[in-house]
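S1.2 Input.
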Amino acid sequence: MSLLLETIKIENGKPCLLPWHQKRFDEARSLLFGTCPPINLSEPIRVPAHCQNGIFRCRIEYSRQIEKTEFLPFLPRTFQSLRLVTGNHIDYALKYADRSALNQLLAQRGECDEIIIVKNGLLTDCTIGNLVFFDGQHWHTPASPLLRGTQRSHLLAQALIRETEIRTSDLPNYQQAGIINVFYNLENMPKVEIQNIINF
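S1.3 Output.
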C-alpha cells in the first residue's frame, strides 16, 4: 500500500489550515488502520530556521505512524489553459503519496497547462487541487471531487463556495475556473477563462 500524504502550507514559519489537515489525517488513519495511537500533527512540524520566512511546503508521508517529514520551497505555477480528460476508473479519495494514476491522466494534457478530470460525466478535480467555477455571482465547486481538499473544506465551512453537481455541458454557464489547494484560496488562486478549457 502506498504511503499517505499531507502537504501543509508553511507561511512565515507557521502551518496553515492545520485543523483541517489534522481531521483528514485522523480520518484516513482510522479508515485504513482502525484504532491507532493519536498523533498531533503539530508535533512532527518543526519548521527549520531557513523556512521561517516566506512560503514553504511541509510534506508528511505516513501510514500508522509518521514515516517522513520534509520542507520544500513552494514554486508557484501559472495556468492559462485546461483540458478535459476522462478518468472514470480513478480513485483518489485518500491523498496517497503515489500519484501515478493522476500523472497518467496529466500526460494527456497536450499543450494545456493542466487538466480537469471528468469522472462519469461529472467534473471533479485537477491534479494539483480542487476546482471552483464562477457563474458571475458565486463560486461553485464540484459536488463529487476525487479528494476533499483542506482548502475546499475550509471555504465550504465559511460558505464562500457552494457545492454543485457540474457536468461538462454546464461549463458554458460559467465564466472562469479557479484552482484551489493549500496554497491557493479564492483571493490568490490561478484563474482560467472558460473559453480556454479544451474539449468541451
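S1.4 Remarks. The chain has three helices and 13 strands.
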